[in-house]
Amino acid sequence: MSAARPLTILRTIAVTATLPLLLTACGYGSEAKKEDDKPANAAATGGKKLSASEVRIGYFPNLTHATALVGLQEGLIQKELGGTTIKPQSFNAGPSEIEALNGGSLDIGFIGPSPSINGYVKSKGSNLRIISGSASGGVKLVVNPDKIKTLDDLKGKKIATPQKGNTQDVAFLNWIAEKGWTVDAESGKGDVSVVRTDNKVTPDAFKQGSIDGAWVPEPTASKLVSEGGSVLLDETTLWPDKKFVITNVIVSQKFLKEHPDVVEAVLAGTVKTNEWINANPDKAKASANAKLAAEGGKPLDAKVIDPAWSSILVTDDPLATTLKAQADYAVKAKLIEQPDLAGIYDLTLLNKVLKAAGKPEVSDAGLGAK
Questions:
Q1: CA atoms of 354 and 34, how far apart (whole Å)
Q2: What distance in Å separates the CA atoms of residue 107 and residue 250, rounded to the nearest whole number?
Q3: With the C-alpha atoms ordered 120, 331, 94, 265, is the resulting torsion angle positive or negative?
Q4: Which residue of 169, 187, 328, 348 has the fewest C-beta atoms within 10 A of its own C-beta?
């Protein structure tokens, strides 16, 4: 398997969201927002339209969706689409994006591993495919250094995760189990109190002392650090090669079947976007922040975006073995039954794009569509 090289200077850039029925998404709400077309994403004048006149692309206004943020902001995805127009939609939680995809109002989405699994399993493999990776990393355990100085000090403390069964919640429950401690996954009660808290309010809860720390994605982790928190653990250290999927690119199977040329063009754009991010770290960070400002009304402070950005790796590789591992963690926590993930990936078009660009192909870990 192969991933994009780390960003120089700043290094590099789910989430995330949910696993099946019992698993709900982490994010900043659940509403989708349709955007007005920006000049960078308008169809090229006189450009050749592909088999669809438009493609509806969903993403989250999170740094772990850097490929989408930068690709849209810089027009790098639109450039590959020519006269086919991008209709972007921002989402704040996985279930709403999966619902849009399944309901036919969205064609392609950037989304975390848990909702990818959720959408695939709930539809018995009929509604979506993962067609590319997008990002790895960007998840940290941040604690109050006055209360917690070592990992063993977490016992008896209140630690937040974004939501029950979301990607970070499952990872934390698995880490607790490997420590030999016991927590009831449903209630969050046990040797550690797992407090499910929306990322929007986690920084305030931390400041008020109602939680002692949090296992959260960026930029929430760096927001906590800016409030006096200390990074006790970076989740990348728990994974082989320090890589694990946090964001995928998914597609409606119907759209993939009817418009493979459009999907291929979008993937050509994401591959070029990741390459541009790695070659232009400072410009890419500023671009992502500009897109976030357009979404939320103001950019992130340097003390937040700098450490957050440097902990995320943009990658074309979906890191398929780590998605399978995350599903196994949820099964281990008794949040879900063992899912059948056979066919969740279709990397055919991605590998075609990578080969044309002189890049190595990536693996589906035996979970590809037949």
A1: 30
A2: 9
A3: negative
A4: 187
Partnered with residue 214 across adjacent β-strands are 142, 160
Q: What is the pTM of this model?
A: 0.83
Per-residue pLDDT of the chain (370 residues; tens, 9 = 90+): 444 433 333 333 333 333 333 333 333 233 455 554 444 566 654 567 799 999 999 998 889 999 999 999 999 999 999 999 999 999 877 888 999 999 999 999 999 998 899 889 888 899 999 999 999 999 999 999 999 999 999 999 999 998 888 888 989 999 999 999 999 999 999 999 999 998 889 999 999 999 999 999 999 999 999 999 999 999 999 998 999 999 999 999 999 999 999 999 999 999 999 999 999 999 999 999 999 999 877 899 999 999 999 999 999 999 999 999 999 998 999 888 888 999 999 999 999 999 999 999 999 999 998 7
As given in the structure block, the two tokens for residue 289 are 């922040």
Contacts of 227 (CB under 8 A, 6+ apart): 203, 206, 207
Tell me the C-alpha distance between 5 and 2, whole Å.
9
Q: Is 150 helix (H, G, I), strand (E, B) or coil?
A: coil
List the structure tokens of 26.
């982490």
- What are the phi and psi torsion angles at 309 (to 5°)? -60, -40
Q: Residue 247: phi, psi to the nearest 5?
A: -140, 135
Q: Where are the beta strands (DSSP E) in the chain?
A: 32-34, 54-59, 85-91, 108-111, 128-137, 139-143, 158-161, 193-196, 213-217, 230-234, 245-252, 312-314
Q: DSSP states of 218-239 as a string?
A: TTHHHHHHHTT-EEEEEGGGGS
Question: CB count, 10 Å around CB of 148?
Answer: 21
User: What tokens appear for 27 in the block?
Assistant: 């994010």
Unique residue bearing structure tokens 């209360």? 147
